[in-house]
Design brief:
heterodimer, A: about 180 residues, six-stranded mixed β-sheet, about 40% helix, B: about 240 residues
Chain lengths: ~180, ~240
Amino acid sequence: MAFRCEIRLSGSGGQGLILAGKIMAEAAAIYDDKNATQSQSYGPEARGGSSRSEVIISDEEIDYPKAVNLDLLLALTQEACDKYIGDLRPDGVLIADSGFVQKVPRGSFRVYRVPITETAEREVGCSLVANIVALGIITHVLGIVKPEAVESAIISRVPRGSEDMNIKAFRTGVVLAQRLAGT
Amino acid sequence: MAHWTDRLGEKRRADLLLVLNEISRLRAHGAPEFVVIGAIPLLVRGYLEYRALWDVDLLFRDENAISAFASLPKDAGLRVVDYAGDCLRSHGITSYLTTWKFQRAWINVDLIARGALFEFFRSGSSPPWIETFDLGDRHLTIELPCAAAWDIFVDKVLSPRMRRDIEAQASISVDLRHVAIICQRDGGDRRFWEHVVGQSRRLGREPEFLAMMRSIIRHAARVGYANLAPTPLATRYLGDMR
């Protein structure tokens, strides 16, 4: 059966959300034979404030490229969570960084409160890869893009010989999600 | 040797070429002046050799020029959707984010204004990039002014993102990757260093550029770009690397 999946990655400038969105879209469109669009909310040098990146993935041609009814919302800040939760489908998935999102809105959606940034720091030694950890969680939770495809997209973006940290971050996210889901 | 279109992905190739052809047609029919910036100029000149979802970034003189371009009548077979409904303004940058589709894939076309940087990129963009393609029964002609790779290098080195990425040792930084690729290819050429240092001076940011370049080279190996190790030629232009 055909699917269309709308994902929004939200937080603040400098958290690498736009790059994460591009990696997810490239994983789907280039390495997993699906269709994908990716958009972002601000100019190339903006800093601070809110930031968001949207990815739409489908196994058919994408007729409308804007996200209107989110299947998954990643919130790395409380502000982003509060701002965008209304766009999440009632049966959607909220993934919130528990280090920064203290108040999770009520709703019928599934909620994963995960220490994303803390895990990036503790397990990988670098908070900057929190975006990649988040990609691992999203990949497992959604199950629509092959993990190998996401790893290929990550590897294509880093210099040869330095893939380890980013792949470790991604796999750490996958394992986190597996533990949460009990799978 | 692979052609740049091999980096587009099969599903997106036709749409990107049709979009670039349409932008060329608009330019030939009186569109406000613009320069192609971002990754496309590096891609078509063979600097970038990986596959990605390439966006088209067009730099305009100001917001009025963006509005004029956005409102131009376009090909009847083209669908255009704007992402935000209006221009976004942040940190001296105005951007109007759109996505275009002719056949099956949406191609992001970002219309951008960044004040004085328009003149900076425009002066180095001639002659325009010209290339023709046969796509089915259509003959496409792309003729677009593209920012010079060495000017893109200067802009990326001076971007706030670069400082943060270097401090955080972010191996996955897009800007750092592009800077490393350009430096690897052209860093052995004295004219390259003369150009980039001269252009930073023209922007009134030479000390900042030199300091940032020294910082990039010092930290490069730690983030996977050992090829950026200081050479005698680079040291001559950038000063003491310690």
